[in-house]
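Thread: quick sanity check before group meeting

JM: Hey all, I'm pulling together slides for Thursday and realized we never actually wrote out the predicted structure for the chain we discussed last week. Dropping the sequence here so it's in one place. If anyone has concerns about the input, flag it before I start.
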Amino acid sequence: MNYEIKQQDKFKFIEVGEGEPLILLHGLFGALSNFKDLIEHFKGNYKVVVPLLPLFDLDIFHTSVGGLEKHVQKFIETRDYRNIHLLGNSLGGHVALVHILKHPERIKSLILTGSSGLFENGMGDSYPKRGDYEYIKKKTQVTFYDPATATKELVDEVFEITNNRLKVIKIIALAKSAIRNNLGEELNQIKQPTCLIWGNNDTITPPFVGREFNRLIPNSELHFVDKCGHAPMMEVPDEFNRILEGFLNKLKS
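JM (edit): ok, ran it. Output follows.
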């Protein structure tokens, strides 16, 4: 997947295709590669946009879910996107939720997969063990139902991040911010159609989290995928794209 990374002002992003914007927000250890199958599938009918979230570039006081949301808001305004289908995985889902609650006017629909915002299992008290490759490999594998999904390339990416002391401090700040920023009492304000796609074997945001989002977000539908962990768009891309396409087709005016 070799898409051009565009830059406008301080924003770096991928934008391919034409149509209503489908904006994809990655998680804490997320990368553009997480969305490659999704981009390929939807770029024929949508303008697929992946902003690079500044996980490690914000100052420590703004290294939070709220700080990331402000970045997304300014990005959307700078690019003047409208009628947006906003999709977030893990921490990206949390950022999407904060955004739709603060700035619902440009958002047409919301798609969450393995989202934080209600409950998530962290990496554990012993995290992060810097320099311990096998430990990082096991922690990366836990993200998926099939450990083989955690390719060497992916483990190497996570290992590189966790070996950088400043990045580790920022990861911990973001993780703590996500835990503090519980949205349970606000979710009933979301009016947009919402699609929840959850792995039945997600150990980070387990299936009960998906059910709780479904209960609290009024106009939401919930889809479970078997043999799938925390990142369905990576682990079961065909099934994920089928569910998402069905949801988006219902919204075509």
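AS: nice. The first strand starts at residue 6 and ends at 8. The CA atoms of residues 60 and 162 lie 17 Å apart.
JM: adding both to the slides.
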